[in-house]
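Example 3.2
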Amino acid sequence: MSNKTRLMAAAALTAILPVTALAGEIAVIVKTTNSNFWQNVNKGASAAIEGQSEHTMTFNGPASESAVADQVNLVENAINRGVSGIVLAPSDPEALAPVVKRAYESGIPVAIIDSGLGEAAKGTYQAFLSTDNCAAGETVAKAMVDAVGTEGKVAVMSYVAGVGSEIGRVGCFMDYLKGNSQIEIVGPLYSQSQMATALNQTTDILAANPDLVGIFGANEPTAVGMGRAIVQAGKAGKLAAFGFDGNGDLQDFVKDGTLNAIAVQGSFQMGELGVKAVMDVIAGESVDEFIDTGVVLVTRDNIDSPEAQHVLY
């Protein structure tokens, strides 16, 4: 082989290798890697990749959820590498829209998980995977009716009025009770997602309503404050109490009987189903525009099960 031929072959190999090496990469980019919730997404994404050889998966995210510019750069880098697909949990609905559009224009399929993008990004991604908060609220309401029956007082401890997740989660919880029972609803009260505020509000509610049969704390800080107030009031195990989300404090409340159950969003499913959706698009298959990643109702009986452990954090 002449030197000229060798040089031409080397040049051709150099041109081919980067594309070939990265053709099967699916880049999973989350809001931050410094969170058990997002590490559960990583576990789900890894589970989706296992057992097949066409694709590899990379997992990345900025140091904090507020580092939006860093997340934009991670998506830019993935596009520049020529990845096959992207699974993205956007930290900001507007700031990430232009780079998702660039991925679309580059022929790279994108699945959005957890949080939606603004109107500017409409039509530039193939699937949105998130919790159906209305369905989640109904799930908790059904569990409440199972626990207390169809009569009595149930308090609703909410977080921020008018937020999209709150409208679905709390609205559908109350609508289900109104349509399927004679339960009297106390509240909702709004903690502004402050644990201390929820604690004080719950303390007042319990004192003013000694006949309360049930109570629902609709997000993590609210449910933690609610649980602490129930314990301080000596009411643990004396009324049906349900929380939302799954950190260590809430898990402890389930284990000791302060809470009947916690509804935990499917972080594992976001990673697993997000990667699967992108692989389906790459394979030329159709995917649903919205995929509900669901909630797991975690109780003392199932808290150690694989299904629960996949979503707790």
